[in-house]
C-alpha cells in the first residue's frame, strides 16, 4: 500500500491557527469544572491538539446564575440552537439522563459535530442509536467519563485489549454504595444509618435510588459488557439487585469467612468449550469476595475494574469513581482525542457488535452462595435442609451454627451451582416448617 | 467545519476484502505467541479491524528451526528485505535491543509501514528518531508492550489523561526484581540466594544485569516520563540504582517501619509554584514504601503503575508485567489499532514534546531517607551524628538503636531533604571516627 496524502491534512495545515469550537451542555459540578479547565489550560490543550480549543457556548436550564470565573456571555438556554450552530465543531454533553440529552446528542452528530459524553444512562439505554448516528456522519462519539470517572477503562477495553479475548470484567463502579458498604464493614453500622451519614457527607444524593438500587452500576455494567464482548448489551439486559437488603449480619458473616461485601458489576463470557455459542451474562448485585482479592481493598468512594483475558491475564484499574475533577479529566482526555482526530480528518473506533452474543438469563449463571437461615431446632432440621439442597443438586461446602435451639441461625455456603437451582432450593427451604426464615442469600465471588 | 469525505475512506471501501499484510520481526517467546494468535484469532481480528490481517513473513536469525504450528514457508533470515516489501502494510518488531531493530524499524517507517514495537531499550535511547520518521511518513508507531507488559499504560497516558496535568508516575515496572524483593521479604533470604532461585524458576535470566541493575526499569521510566510530561526523556536522563545492594537488614528494617522495599521507577514534575519553569526528575532505585500504599501489595512478577494528576487524582494500573501471552496481547491491541487507522486513512497521536522541560539532577530531588550506621559507642556518638545532619540542614525524624556498645547499629529516618544535602551528610558521617560504616542508605517514598 502506498502512502496516501489526505486532503484533510492539507486543510489542517491551512487552518492550523483556527480554533476548534466547543459547545458545552450542562454546567453543574462536572460542567463547570470542564469549563474552568478548558479556559485555564488553553495553552496545554492547544499544544496537545495542534489547534486551539475555544469554548463558544454553554447550555444551561436557567441563565443568569453567577458561575464564578466563566464569562456570562457564554451561557444560553437554547441548547438545540447551540449544538447545531455551524461554527461548532465539538460538543460535550454532561447534562445526564435520557432527554433532552439524547435529542441534543443526535442533533449534534447529525450536524457533523463529534461528541464527548459522560451519560451512562443514555448509552446503556440507547447507545446503538447514538453510535449509528456517529458512524453515519463520520464523526466521533467518546465516553470515557461514563464509567468509573477518571479511571481509563473505556479506551483500554476498546483499544488496548482489542487484540485479546476478554473473558470477564468485574467492577466496583459505584462510589456511593462502596462508601456505604465500606462504612458498614468498618463501623458495624446498619444500612439506613450509614446511608444517612453518606447523605450528610455529600457521598449520597437526597434521592439515593439510582445508586443504592444499583441502576447506576447496571448502566455501567451494560457499557462494559458491550465493549468487552463486542456485542450490544443494554441496561434492560442486566440482572440487578441493590444494597438495601444488606444487613450487618451479612457483613459480620462475610468477615468471619475472611471476606467483604461489595456491590459488584459482573460481566462474563461463557466458556463455550462444548461447541455451543458463547453467551454473555451481566449482573449487578452485592457479593462476598475474599479479602485477598484485589477488589476487596478498594475502599471509600473509589472505583476499580478487574479484567481477565486469555492472553493478558488479570488486570486491574483503580481510581476515583466520581467527582467534578476526575470526571472532567476523563471528558477533557476524550475532547483532546476527538479534536486531534478532527485535525487529522480521522475518527476513532465505532461501536463493535459483530459478535452479537446472546444474553444468558440469571437462572443459568453459576456461582457460589452464602445463606443465612433462622431455624427452630438445629439437631432435628439439618437433615431436612441438607436433603433440600441435595434434591436440587446444590452441594453444600460448609454449615455453621450460630445460637442454639429456639433462636438458632444456620449459615450455609454452597459449592458452585446455577442461580435457578439455588432459587428452587430457597423456595423449598421456605416451605419447611422448621425453617422460620431465609434471612439472607448472597453470592460469593472472586475465587 | 463541514464533514470531509476523505479519499482513503473510499479506497478502504474498495479494498474491504483485501488483507492488510503483516511482517513479524523476531520469533522468540513473544513473537511465536503473536504469530499463533494472529493465525488462530484471524476471524475476530478481521471483524475488529474491518479487513483481514495476513501474516506474510517472519524474520528470524536462524531458519530451519521447527516452530510448532507456524508454516515454515513464512520464515526468512532477510529481515531488511521483509520490512521493505511492497506488499507489507504493518510491521511488528519483537527482536529487542538497539541494532538491528532500529535500522529495521526506520526502514519500515520510511517505506510507509506502520510499526508496532515492544522495544523499550530502543525507544528510551533513540525514540525521537523513530517518532520523527513515523511523523514524516504519516504512519503509526505504537508501543504499548514496551512498558509493563499487557497493562494498558501507554494509551492511558497518551490519550485518556491527555486533557489533564500529570504530576507523578510511580511504577513497579520490572517483574524480575519485584519477584526477588518479594521473596526476600517473605522468606528472609539474601539477594544472591534469591536471585539464584529466580534464575532456576525462569524469572531471571542467566545474565540478570539488565534487570537487577535496573537498566530495564530505567528505559521504561524514560518512556513513561516522556509521555506523562510531554517532553523528551532518554535512558541517559534517568538516575539509576539497582537492587544488588539491598540487604536482608534493609528489608527487616523496612518491615519494622511497616514498610516494604520495592524497586520504583519515579517520574515527577516539579511544582513550579514559585514561577520557575517546571522541571522533570526521573529516577529508578530501591525504596521503602508503607504497606498501606497501593503499590506495596503488588507481589511476585506483577507490575503496577501509580499515576497522580491534578484533576483525576490517584489512579493505579495493575497486571502481569511480562511473559509471552501478556506481551502478545499488548502487541495485538496495538496491531488492531494501527490496522484500523490504516483502513480509515488516519494515524494516531505522535510524539508530544512541546513542553521541552529540563531534567532535574538527582541532587535536587527531595525525599526522605533511611540510613543504617555501624557505630562504636552510641551514647558518645549520637551528638556528633546529629550535629552532622544539622550542619547540612537534614532533619532527623527517628533514631533507633539496635545492639549495644561495640556492635551497635543506628537506624535513622530523615524528614524530607535534597539528595545533595543527604549525600554530603553521608560523606561527613563516613569521616567520623565513631562511625565504622554507613551500611545502607535507602530512600523512603509514597507518603
Automatic annotation (TrEMBL), chains A, B:
Domain of life: Bacteria
Domain ACT positions: 370-443
Enzyme class: oxidoreductase
Pfam family, one: NAD_binding_3
Catalytic activity: L-homoserine + NAD(+) = L-aspartate 4-semialdehyde + NADH + H(+); L-homoserine + NADP(+) = L-aspartate 4-semialdehyde + NADPH + H(+)
EC numbers on record: 1.1.1.3
Involved pathway(s): Amino-acid biosynthesis; L-methionine biosynthesis via de novo pathway; L-homoserine from L-aspartate: step 3/3; Amino-acid biosynthesis; L-threonine biosynthesis; L-threonine from L-aspartate: step 3/5
Keywords per UniProt: Amino-acid biosynthesis, Methionine biosynthesis, Oxidoreductase, Sodium, Threonine biosynthesis
Cofactor: a metal cation
Entry function: Catalyzes the conversion of L-aspartate-beta-semialdehyde (L-Asa) to L-homoserine (L-Hse), the third step in the biosynthesis of threonine and methionine from aspartate.
Protein name in UniProt: Homoserine dehydrogenase
Organism listed in the record: Microlunatus ginsengisoli
Amino acid at each position: 500500500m502506498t502512502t496516501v496524502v489526505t486532503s484533510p491534512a492539507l486543510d489542517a495545515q491551512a487552518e492550523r491557527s483556527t480554533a476548534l469550537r466547543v459547545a458545552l451542555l450542562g454546567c453543574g459540578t462536572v460542567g463547570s469544572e470542564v469549563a474552568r479547565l478548558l479556559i485555564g489550560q488553553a495553552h496545554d490543550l492547544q499544544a496537545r491538539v495542534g489547534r486551539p480549543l475555544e469554548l463558544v457556548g454553554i447550555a444551561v436550564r436557567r441563565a443568569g446564575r453567577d458561575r464564578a470565573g466563566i464569562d456570562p456571555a457564554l451561557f444560553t438556554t437554547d441548547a438545540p440552537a447551540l449544538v447545531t450552530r455551524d461554527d461548532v465543531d465539538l460538543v460535550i454533553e454532561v447534562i445526564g439522563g435520557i432527554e433532552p440529552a439524547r435529542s441534543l446528542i443526535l442533533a449534534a452528530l447529525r450536524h457533523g459535530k463529534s461528541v464527548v459524553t459522560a451519560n451512562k444512562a443514555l448509552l446503556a439505554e440507547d447507545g446503538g442509536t447514538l453510535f449509528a448516528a456517529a458512524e453515519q456522519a463520520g464523526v466521533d462519539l467518546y465516553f470515557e467519563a461514563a464509567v468509573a470517572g477518571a479511571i481509563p477503562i473505556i479506551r483500554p477495553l476498546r483499544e488496548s485489549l482489542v487484540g485479546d479475548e476478554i473473558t470477564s470484567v468485574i467492577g466496583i463502579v459505584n462510589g456511593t454504595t462502596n462508601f456505604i458498604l465500606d462504612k458498614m464493614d468498618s463501623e458495624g453500622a446498619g444500612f439506613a444509618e450509614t446511608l444517612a451519614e453518606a447523605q450528610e457527607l455529600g457521598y449520597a444524593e437526597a434521592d439515593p435510588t439510582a445508586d443504592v438500587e444499583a441502576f447506576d452500576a447496571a448502566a455501567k455494567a451494560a457499557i462494559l459488557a458491550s465493549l468487552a464482548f463486542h456485542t450490544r448489551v443494554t441496561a434492560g439486559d442486566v440482572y440487578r439487585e441493590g444494597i438495601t437488603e444488606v444487613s450487618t449480619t451479612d457483613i459480620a458473616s462475610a468477615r468471619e469467612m475472611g471476606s467483604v461485601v461489595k456491590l459488584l458489576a459482573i460481566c462474563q463470557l461463557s466458556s463455550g468449550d462444548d461447541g455451543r455459542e458463547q453467551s454473555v451474562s451481566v449482573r449487578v448485585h452485592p457479593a462476598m469476595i475474599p479479602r485477598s482479592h484485589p477488589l476487596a481493598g478498594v475502599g471509600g468512594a473509589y472505583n476499580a475494574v478487574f479484567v481477565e483475558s486469555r492472553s493478558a491475564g488479570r488486570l486491574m484499574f483503580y481510581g476515583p469513581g466520581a467527582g467534578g475533577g476526575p470526571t472532567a479529566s476523563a471528558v477533557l482526555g476524550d475532547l483532546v482525542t476527538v479534536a486531534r482526530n478532527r485535525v487529522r480528518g480521522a475518527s476513532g473506533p465505532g461501536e463493535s457488535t459483530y459478535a452479537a452474543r446472546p444474553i444468558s438469563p440469571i437462572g443459568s449463571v453459576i456461582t457460589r452462595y452464602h445463606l443465612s437461615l433462622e431455624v427452630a431446632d438445629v439437631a432435628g432440621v439439618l437433615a431436612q435442609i441438607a436433603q433440600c439442597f441435595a434434591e436440587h443438586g446444590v452441594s453444600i461446602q460448609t454449615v455453621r451454627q450460630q445460637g442454639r435451639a429456639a433462636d438458632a441461625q444456620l449459615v450455609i455456603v454452597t459449592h458452585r451451582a446455577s442461580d435457578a437451582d439455588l432459587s428452587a432450593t430457597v423456595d423449598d427451604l421456605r416451605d419447611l416448617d422448621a425453617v422460620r426464615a431465609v434471612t439472607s442469600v448472597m453470592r460469593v465471588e472472586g475465587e
